[in-house]
Write a structure and sequence with these properties.
With 444 residues, this protein is mostly beta strands. It is 1% helix and 29% strand. It has one helix and 34 strands. The protein has one helix spanning 327-330; strands at residues 10-11, 25-27, 32-35, 48-50, 55-58, 72-74, 79-83, 96-98, 103-107, 120-122, 128-130, 145-148, 176-180, 187-188, 200-204, 208-209, 219-223, 242-245, 250-252, 265-267, 272-275, 289-291, 296-299, 313-315, 320-321, 335-337, 353-354, 357-358, 393-395, 400-402, 405-410, 417-422, 426-434, 437-443. The strands form seven sheets. It has a 14-stranded parallel β-sheet, with no helix packed on it. It has a six-stranded parallel β-sheet with strand order 1-3-5-7-9-11, with no helix packed on it. A four-stranded parallel β-sheet has the order 19-21-23-25, with no helix packed on it. The longest helix has 4 residues, at 327-330. The radius of gyration is 28 Å and the shape is elongated.
């Protein structure tokens, strides 16, 4: 019955649908149906039921759990409320469950762990759901997508690690897709050891402690308040191709990062990582993007990074790196950024922007020699006495004068690693790229 999609239908779902004893699919997507889902649907041998994007209200009737043949249940973006019925755990044939954007309350029932054929769960944008997650979610061996977000978790994840003190290097955990916006006290990461088809993990904006629970993923994406060191078991993730992380990891970047030999993108900006950059990064021969900016890294830039022939973007902005700036960086035509560091030693640089390399404020404050340009010095000291008391910028336009005020031009469209200044009045430094869009600048 997919011909009922998007017809602006109003009213209620008719009880008479319950008489269509051979009906297998009901798709009422994008209509204006309201009131609760009808319990009269229970006798139908439905395989697929979708009420996406309507005005359905009330609670999800427990009778849906009696639809033994149901494989797909999509009720997202409605006004349904209340707790999730435990009876949904009876839908043993269910493969897809989408309950995004509702007003669900309470916890996700333990009975969800019975849905062994389930491939995708979406219960994000339900602000009143609470933890913990069912401990037996790790039994859902067919699960390929797990999306949970905007939830008031206190202790979402129970202690999974008591059963797994040692992580077998042959573990097959691959794809837990997204667990986002987790709030409340720090919590333990769940053991997904049995989820054999997974290849990506995305965990965002949460307070989670990671233990020995994952090893064979391809993509690790996160933006959490992780405050511990990077777990040693992450060194076993030899199939990783992307690490996009905005957590608060502490400690040194581990040497085992060299195990991620398939890695193409490594983003670890804005963490609390410290110490030297490990030379084992040079083993990541497929790396095209490396971002270690806004950390507490010290020491010299390893010359071994120069061996990464495919490296197009290198961002080491705002660290405490020292020594001399390697010539393979300063003479590069790639988009490299070493701005806001503590480099020392003689400088042969005669410009503030060397090709595509951002060098602004890259030298230590101890480098006061006149041989170092003002724009390369720490904190950008003014080259003379202050002459201006106001500033006007014509954003995105040329220099103009209006009402007696001169507006400076702003026409530079350069992106990833760039410093520009206009006369002696203002300038800007841009560093970083938006994921998948190297031509877009993130201005700082």
């Amino acid at each position: 019955m997919d011909q009922l999609k998007g017809l602006n239908l109003a009213g209620v779902i008719p009880d008479e649908f319950g008489n269509l004893t051979y009906l297998q699919e009901i798709d009422l997507t994008r209509n204006y149906l309201d009131v609760s889902i009808r319990t009269s649907l229970a006798p139908i041998p439905l395989v697929s039921l979708s009420g996406l994007g309507n005005h359905l209200s009330g609670s999800i009737p427990k009778e849906i759990g009696d639809l033994a043949t149901l494989e797909e249940l999509v009720l997202e973006n409605n006004q349904l409320e209340g707790p999730l019925p435990e009876n949904l755990g009876n839908l043993r044939s269910l493969r897809r469950l989408q309950l995004k954007g509702l007003n669900l309350t309470g916890v996700i029932p333990d009975e969800f762990g019975n849905l062994t054929y389930l491939q995708e769960i979406q219960v994000w944008e339900n602000d009143q759901l609470e933890g913990p997650l069912p401990e037996n979610l790790g039994n859902l061996r067919s699960l390929r997508g797990l999306l949970i977000s905007s939830i008031r978790w206190e202790y979402i994840f129970r202690e999974y690690t008591k059963f797994y003190r040692e992580l077998d290097q042959t573990c097959e955990t691959r794809y837990a897709r997204r667990i986002t916006d987790l709030k409340g006290s720090p919590m333990d990461f769940p053991n997904l050891h049995n989820l054999m088809e997974m290849d990506k993990l995305r965990v965002e904006y949460g307070l989670i402690r990671i233990y020995r629970t994952v090893c064979d993923m391809r993509s690790l994406l996160s933006a959490n308040n992780f405050t511990d060191t990077i777990p040693e078991t992450f060194g076993n993730m030899k199939n990783l191709t992307d690490v996009l992380d905005g957590s608060m990891f502490s400690g040194k970047i581990p040497d085992f990062i060299g195990n991620w030999t398939k890695l193409e993108k490594l983003y670890m900006q804005g963490t609390s990582m410290e110490g030297p950059i490990p030379s084992t990064i040079s083993l990541l021969t497929n790396l095209t993007e490396l971002d270690l900016s806004f950390n507490r890294l010290r020491g010299q830039i390893p010359d071994t990074i120069d061996s990464l022939a495919d490296l197009e973007y290198l961002f080491l902005t705002n660290n405490s790196l020292s020594g001399t700036i390697p010539s393979w960086i300063s003479d590069s035509n790639q988009k490299f950024d070493v701005s806001y560091n503590n480099f020392t030693g003689p400088s042969s640089l005669t410009v503030c922007q060397q090709r595509a390399v951002n060098l602004v404020s890259s030298f230590s404050s101890s480098e006061s020699s006149d041989s170092v340009l003002w724009c390369l010095k720490k904190d950008l000291p003014c080259p003379g006495d202050a002459k201006h008391h106001s500033l006007f910028i014509n954003c995105g336009g040329d220099k103009i004068t209006t009402e007696g005020n001169e507006y400076q031009r702003d026409l530079d469209g350069s992106g990833a690693s760039h410093f520009s200044y206009y006369s002696e009045q203002w300038g800007y430094s841009s560093t970083g790229i938006f994921t998948g869009n190297g031509s877009a600048a993130i201005q700082s």
